[in-house]
Amino acid sequence: ELMIVVVILAVLMTIALPAYQGQVRRANRVAAQGQMLEIANLQQQFLLSNRTYMDEDKLAAAGFVPDPAVSRHYRHSLVLGAGPLPSYQLRFTPTGSQESDGWLQLDSQGNRTSQYGGR
C-alpha cells in the first residue's frame, strides 16, 4: 500500500511541478512587464520637462530602484536613440531560472515586442 501511495505521489509531482514552474515563469514575466511600464512612465515625465529621455544614471538619480524580484530574473538595458528626435529602447533579458523565457522590449513609441523561449 505504501508503494502505491509513493507511485501516485511521484506521478502527481511529474505533472504538477512543470505546471507550477510555468506559472512562476509567467508571474516573473508579468512583474518584468510592470517594471518596464514604470520606466516608460518615468521616461515620459522626464521628456515633458527636459525634451530628452533619461539614461541609466539619470533614471537612478530620479529615484528609480529596480525591484529585486525582477532583477533576480531579468537584466535590463536602456539605449537612447541618436537621431534628431529623442527616443529610447528598453529591453529585459531573462537570466537564471527564467532563461527559458524570451526577452521583452519596449520603445519610446510604445511598441512592444518579445521573443518567447522554447518551453
Architecture overview:
The protein has 119 residues and is α+β, with helices and mostly antiparallel strands. The protein is built from three helices and four strands, in the order H-H-H-E-E-E-E. Helices cover 50% and strands 18% of the residues. The protein has a four-stranded antiparallel β-sheet, covered by helices on one side. The longest helix has 49 residues, at 2-50. It has helices at residues 2-50, 56-61, 68-71, and strands at 74-80, 88-94, 104-107, 112-114.
Number of separate helices? 3
Strands of the widest sheet, in order across it, are 1-2-3-4
* Classification by helices and strands: alpha+beta
Q: Give the number of DSSP strands.
A: 4
| Topology order in helix (H) and strand (E) letters | HHHEEEE
Low-confidence stretches: none
Characterize the largest beta sheet: strand count, sense, and whether it forms a barrel: 4 strands, antiparallel
Strand percentage, roughly?
Answer: 15-25%
Mean pLDDT: 91
Estimate the helix proportion, in percent: 40-55%
How far apart the termini lie comes to 36 Å
Oligomer: single chain
Shape: elongated
Radius of gyration: 20 Å
SSE layout and pairing:
Blueprint: H1 2-50, H2 56-61, H3 68-71, E1 74-80, E2 88-94, E3 104-107, E4 112-114
Provide a short characterization of the protein structure.
With 119 residues, this protein is α+β, with helices and mostly antiparallel strands. The chain has helices at 2-50, 56-61, 68-71, and strands at 74-80, 88-94, 104-107, 112-114.
